[in-house]
Fold this protein.
Amino acid sequence: MKTIKELKNISGKRVLLRADFNVPIKNGKIISTFRIDKTIPTISFLQKKGAKVIIISHLGDKGEESLELVGKELGKHIKDFRFISSPILSDETENEVKTLKKGEVILLENLRREDGEKKNFPSFARAISRYGDIYVNDAFSVCHREHASVVGITAHIPGYAGLQLINEIENLSQVFEPKHPFLFILGGAKFETKIPLVKKFLRLADDVFIGGAIANDFLKARGYEVGNSLVGESNFQIPLFLKNKKLILPEDVVAFDGHKKRVTQAEDVLPNESILDVGPETISKIKELVDKSKLILWNGPLGKYEDGFLGSSSLLLKAIAKSKATSIVGGGDTVALVTKLKIGNKISFLSTGGGASLDFLSKGMLPGLRVLK
């Protein structure tokens, strides 16, 4: 990829920076500034070079939220910054771009308020490209999307990778030629999107531990009762995976019947219960693997995060933080838990990507990266 480290003499040039400020907001407050924080080094880099920086981003799936709160947060960290509340394709926004001075930064309103963004309309990509002389993508978490601001825009102005995008690729790429022993931990739900990862890392890793809701599919395929637990609609060739000696499944689980929870062996779950977390016996065994590993890759929580079942994930994250292994953690909920536990500085790399991380790890390439070559 071409990167901003290669850019020279950009003083006075307009740089259209694609960031991902799709941050969680609750009761009018930003819950996590993680993605904002990770983009600031790229903004500062361009500012110091004297560029005129125009930031474009999205918030929410349909553009229902304004980026005003993000603008207020950015204003705490960046000098000569302002947020433009006018629609992206408006005379007001165009005039703001025209009056930008060297080193100034503006954030435009939510991209997904425009129909042409997600549909990658060539006319919309061409229209937003007119705001910049150079395009920089620092939004790894949307690089798996063929959207106008990710892919289409590069047909009109030259594209480069930002500093965080570079960090993502360099760190995640370590798993393609891993140090051994290599432990892969996979949690969360939506197993149909994660089957390529299971296939790939059963080849690359020394041990593959499956937790979260997707473990229910494996336990069911093994013939165990899973009660009211969340499972997929098909078995996704799981019986073939069960034969692999590298695969590790929960031996005990936290089961919940709607009134009380209990720890039980995985094969002893009752028909009226749901599996909501991994049990302590299993976590103890995975901790032993953590202590032996040189590389650990983790994506997705081991329990039902949204219902507060954080116990197993917290215990294992703390163990990884204490280990000497190179550790890479991805997935919004898992990264949020790392932040909550205040152990981010003890994890080697935290990825800003969710689906993008999964796609990159399974395919080694993404649409938003390919166009930067």
Q: What stands out?
A: The mean pLDDT is 95. The longest strand covers residues 14-18. The chain has 14 helices and 17 strands. The CA atoms of residues 42 and 106 lie 14 Å apart.
